[in-house]
UniProtKB/TrEMBL annotation:
Gene3D superfamilies membership: alpha/beta hydrolase
Residue intervals of the AB hydrolase-1 domain: 27-139
Organism this protein belongs to: Kibdelosporangium philippinense
A Pfam family reported for this protein in Swiss-Prot or TrEMBL: Abhydrolase_1
Protein name per Swiss-Prot or TrEMBL: Alpha/beta hydrolase
GO molecular function: hydrolase activity
Keywords: Hydrolase
Length: 240
């Protein structure tokens, strides 16, 4: 269903999985903390439902080339913006999940001519859980709510990236202000959160947007358990 496609950028080749035809438009998903494998099924579902769906790997993660230096959130947003232009994608639905919401928000704010709608799934970092030790504790709480198979999909990509690259990205996630980025976004913004997400409160989701979809019974990594989620949100349905 999904095919690999490499695109040359000034940061090296960006690898992406793509599938489907753009009958309903292009849908691009920015993954959380550099890893994309856990999102493949949800992207494949979107491709089967009339979207041309894209799942890019940040440089240094997945199958993308290593960049000249370790990247933070703003760097990933810059290279993904360049990737969008090289692929000549416009009027896209841009989805970010977890720390990918911070990347996606920068992309939408910096290139409003390319993004028609922004969807923030499980946005980070909720100010209630700063400084970073609080967020780490909440992340560990979430790990107890997620299927054990989720970690098995993520570990190979984290191992390939290495601890220093992961640390650089994680530190930039804690320092980045998602609310400030969203204030610069001009397209419609939808926030999606799992009802059991210990990293994103309902109150913070509503501060980011008046359009909030809450998924009953689901934790932070909800697309892994509810792969129909992006299509359902686009069609105004709540995944069961």
């Amino acid at each position: 269903m999904l095919e690999p496609l490499a695109t040359a950028t000034s940061w090296g080749r960006v690898h992406a999985l793509v599938g489907g035809t753009p009958d309903r438009g292009d849908l691009v998903v920015a993954p959380g903390l550099g890893v994309s494998a856990y999102l493949r099924e949800s992207v494949a579902h979107a491709a089967a439902c009339g979207y041309r769906a894209w799942l890019p790997d940040p440089p240094g993660f997945g199958h993308s080339d290593n960049p000249p230096h370790r990247l933070g959130v703003r760097d990933v947003a810059e290279v993904f913006g360049q990737w969008l232009r090289h692929r000549e994608l416009r009027d896209i639905t841009l989805v970010g999940h977890s720390s990918g919401t911070q990347v996606a928000a920068h992309m939408a704010a910096d290139a409003p001519e390319l993004v028609a709608r922004l969807v923030l799934g499980s946005p980070t970092i909720d100010p209630k859980y700063l400084p970073w030790p609080k967020a780490v504790l909440q992340w560990r709480r979430d790990g107890q709510l997620e299927p054990k198979s989720l970690v098995r999909t993520q570990v190979p990509e984290w191992r390939r990236a290495g601890p220093l690259r992961l640390l650089r990205l994680a530190l930039s996630v804690f320092a980045d202000d998602l609310e400030a980025s969203v204030r610069r976004v001009t397209c419609p913004v939808t926030v999606v959160r799992g009802e059991r997400d210990p990293l994103c409160t309902r109150e913070w989701a509503r501060r980011l947007s008046s359009d909030v979809v809450e998924l009953p019974g689901l934790p932070h990594a909800f697309p892994y358990q509810a792969p129909s989620v992006w299509v359902d949100v686009m069609q105004g349905r709540t995944p069961s």
